[in-house]
TrEMBL record:
Protein's name according to its UniProt entry: S-(hydroxymethyl)glutathione dehydrogenase
GO terms (BP aspect): formaldehyde catabolic process
Function: Has high formaldehyde dehydrogenase activity in the presence of glutathione and catalyzes the oxidation of normal alcohols in a reaction that is not GSH-dependent. In addition, hemithiolacetals other than those formed from GSH, including omega-thiol fatty acids, also are substrates. Also acts as a S-nitroso-glutathione reductase by catalyzing the NADH-dependent reduction of S-nitrosoglutathione.
Protein origin, superkingdom: Bacteria
UniProt keyword Signal, yes or no: no
Amino acid sequence: MRTTAAVALEAGKPLEIMDVNLEGPKAGEVLVEVKATGLCHTDDFTLSGADPEGLFPAILGHEGAGVVVEVGPGVTSLQPGDHVIPLYTPECRECEYCLNPKTNLCQSIRSTQGQGLMPDGTSRFSMLDGTPILHYMGCSTFANHTVLPEIALAKVRKDAPFDKICYIGCGVTTGIGAVVNTAKVEIGSTAIVFGLGGIGLNVIQGLRLAGADQIVGVDLNDAKKPMAEKFGMTHFVNPNEVDGDLVAHLVELTGGGGDYTFDATGNVGVMRTALESAHKGWGESVIIGVAPAGAEISTRPFQLVTGRVWRGTAFGGARGRTDVPQIVDWYMDGKIEIDPMITHTLKLDEINKGFEMMHAGESIRSVVVY
Ligand code: NAD
Ligand code: AHE
Ligand code: ZN
């Protein structure tokens, strides 16, 4: 079939809207009509050329929601008409990783996914002249139709709006999951969140859900403050307005440091500040941000010797087929909020404007509706 997509032809160039060929689903695969997709900073990171796994030409996008159109041979858990959220972290429920309760990082298709290919080592997308186009993070939601493995789709309730629940495909689950699955924050905790964008705001709403007492937000952009307060931030710090050492300021503000700190910027200098502003003896710092190729984190080992813990999280530690339908229920039941964070709704041919607003710090989440 033919479908319309925003194609990343090369790093650093705007996406190009074009018709592309899409082959139907093979064994174990599912054809999905994408109804809506969010624009995550990670899409921008890959498009910039900073992602060591970034390959071109590719169809980016990994924060979608849509409807099953057709299933390939052997697919048993989904049928046409089902509503689904694509999962860049699949859940096969069989591999060594899925069987280990300590991780959500299903590895059953990770190597082909990282090469922009389906599990059989081929792509379903091509240009109209036959040139193959690569998949991205196993999702490619910047296409109106896409093909995914069955294990990379969460089946969700049909009354949930696509243009909101697409955000659960990455940002919402990553932020809330970092709090409840990875850090396992306790009631009454003190926390510091660095970066109040599409991920950091969801960390903040996760902290509120978990019953944190003090939630400090740190961002260079003052315009992020009102939204963060709406989601539960109790104190705001702009590093540019702090006289002297930022770590010392945060340690004083929190009475010794955060029980939990979170990096949602992708800046390795910020990651160090986050670790060092965690409380001596027990503070845990969670890295969410994705750093460019070649970037490395550093700190004095003494920071860890004296009891701080440094860890990371992918997709908020969530097991997608199990946890994502539940997060959709939380949204539909009013336990979590999504709507105010979706600041812009765009058509596919406006997608580059969405990235421009991200760069300018004008948006929280832009969502493309097909
Ligand atoms: P975003 O652009 O919406 O937000 C980033 C925020 O960080 C902005 O508000 C910006 O002003 C702030 N910021 C930038 N530099 C800062 C600094 N030095 N100090 C304080 N604040 C600073 O991005 P997002 O969509 O929220 O994504 C955040 C990060 O999380 C990205 O690196 C993204 O790739 C990553 N991410 C990781 C996962 C995961 O599973 N680990 C999932 C989604 C996104
Ligand atoms: N390809 C990059 C790493 C990118 C990365 O860390 N991705 C996160 C999800 S970001 C979603 O917005 C992730 O899930 N990582 C685990 C994995 O297996 O990719 C690089 O540095 O090579
Ligand atoms: Zn993302």
